[in-house]
Amino acid sequence: MAKPPIIAACRRSFYxxxxxxxxxxxxxxxxxxxxxxxxxxxxxxxFDEIAKDVHxxxxxxxxxxxxxxxxxxxxxxxxxxxxIYIAPTLQEIAVLKRHLPQSQDIAARLRIxxxxxxxxxxxxHYERALAENAVDIVETTSRGFSARIxxxxxxxxxxxxxxxxxxxxxxxxxxxxxxxxxxxxxxxFSGCILLRLxxxxxxxxxxxxxxxxxPARELPVYSVMxxxxxxxxxxxxxxxxxxxxxxxRSKLEVTFLCEADDFATIKAFEDQKLPHGFMVIPxxxxxxxxxxKALNYGLQMARGEFVVVYxxxxxxxxxxLLEAWQRFSVGGGNLGCLxxxxxxxxxxxxxxxxxxxxxxxxxxxxxxxxxARNGLVLPLGGSSNHFRRDCLEGVGGWDPYNMxxxxxxxxxxxxxxxxxxxxxxxTIEDAPTVTDVWLRQRTRWLKGWMQTWLFEMRHPRxxxxxxxxxxxxxxxxxxxxxxxxxxxxxxMLVFIAYSGVNLVLENAAGADRGILVYDCMNIAMGYLSFxxxxxxxxxxxxxxxxxxxxxxxxxxLVSVAAWRAVKQLCTQPFxxxxxxxxxxxxxxxxDPSR
Length: 594
What we know:
alpha/beta, five-stranded mixed β-sheet, 22 helices
């Protein structure tokens, strides 16, 4: 190697409080094999890559271990020779040089290899065990907190009794049953409106935080994990976005988790010149083929003290990791997660993308900040979730059987006593512009909400005890309100039209008139509260084009997705309908206030 990159690596090791070897491996254009060969020469040992046909004696992989922290492997070759492969640190090189002359038998068995090769060897050797752990980790660490079982036996009995009661009610007093159920379910619709009004009342102008200069030596290792499937088109954009993150290269690892049979996406990464710390990990096809399973698999190979999850099309603010780390630093050990707001960039690409972008403004700049400020359960978005690693592992990672693993994880964090707060620096995303794509994505989300509500309510008394009455009540207003209002919306419109005709013909009963007024108020306030909350945010104000007039049609699509989710929950509960992405047409401003 030339002297300048070696001198630069030495300087960075002082500035970043890291090892000279770590900085050397992280140098642009560094040859890992060359560096490891030099280490072997210095220690008086041999450099070698581990053969694939050896039997591994050690280490044995316990649950939730980070493979990147393992720096050795003891193997037995086909001729029954025991070899010890190591990727030593700088301090360990000095120990080897001092003690190996007195231990010639051990020296003859020692081999130097690169950290990256050692990691990949151990991953391949323990691939099945790692994948099975990724599938079972939630059930192992959080008994009962899994959507693997959609409905328990007791819930099935309760559902059967309820169905029988409804049939008896229809036979004996159909009008009374209709009135009771209509008013009961309409309350959930009103609950969603009330939450929006409360959030709107408390909404303040969201300002981007000014980040102080932080010495690189104070920063920890940060792990970025991105699960991809059939995303070859966005790979160049994604790699560019990750390289723009403002974090020391030797302390940043970016893991791209691709399904093992997704050859096109893996080939797209091979065509890129990935910096040090950027690694593609094939996820084996064991268990459900879902994003949360891939994240659990990757977490076992991450070494960061903090972990963030992004999606394939994400372009996070370069300083987002810095803001998250500073918030974690002052937030205390019970601050388990930080959610960055998501901003849709392509709102100009049709009415569907425009309403999606406006919905994100309502959610990430209106509702979620209000929930976070009041210490309520915050359902995470599927991207830009920053975690303390020990907190994430403590609650069991992600549920591989849940279609909205993010929102469910936010609930589980709250039940374990962890705090979830919001960041100010956003992540740019793109909205679906095709109805079919949007419908599949929204079906998956709503199915996941239904899964989450069903298994959280397996033990309602315990759930109430974990959250407390206020958070328990708001949780049901939010989750059950979202599900019920999405399902009932078209039925309410049909009832309003039917009752309106009857009123014109003077055939409506007094009770029906009261319900009609209540439904009309619900619908009107639903539209207005949604529109007003979105317009309160700076992002919602910037979205050009008609919003209020299109909300009725957009909500009708949401209802179609909700009924589709009910069908899938009964027939295909673990079907993950993939949302395809494409590269962004323009580079966007990351400041939502501009």
